[in-house]
Amino acid sequence: MIEHVNDADVSDIIKLISKSIKTCIGVLNAEADSLIACSVDEILWWKCHQESTAHYIYRVDGKVVGTILIKDFCYISNLFVDPDFHHQGIGKQLILHALAICKRCSPQSTVKLNSSFYAASFYQKMGFKQIGNAKNLPGGCIPFECAL
């Protein structure tokens, strides 16, 4: 079930992000720690900009197994699904929910995100188009866009 994030969820989200990065993104431990820190920074950004963001979790049997952050209603960040729950439609539900929020709230006609190499094919299946070259960063950084 998709729910709004509250402060009590933050530690579970950080654990989810850490597990997802360390399991799915093929990088060294130091690089994984850096990616995790960047994702935690996004959560801190959300806490300071809640008027222009939407942050959701997906919960199964009381456990946080997915998360997504929408920044300025036109940029998707921090989509993570627990690797034990991959291929169950959770990421798809979170993306579709985020796109509906963006369509309703954004002054923009598109929503953008940066993808890891690992998740690029998922975003393409969801209708996102690559809009630039991948940056040579740990795990990859591929810019995508989707029309609203």
Automatic annotation (TrEMBL):
Domain N-acetyltransferase: 1-148
This protein's name: GNAT family N-acetyltransferase
Gene3D superfamilies per UniProt: 3.40.630.30
A single MF term (Gene Ontology): acyltransferase activity, transferring groups other than amino-acyl groups
Key words of the record: Acyltransferase, Transferase
Pfam families xrefs: Acetyltransf_10 (PF13673)
Keyword Acyltransferase: yes
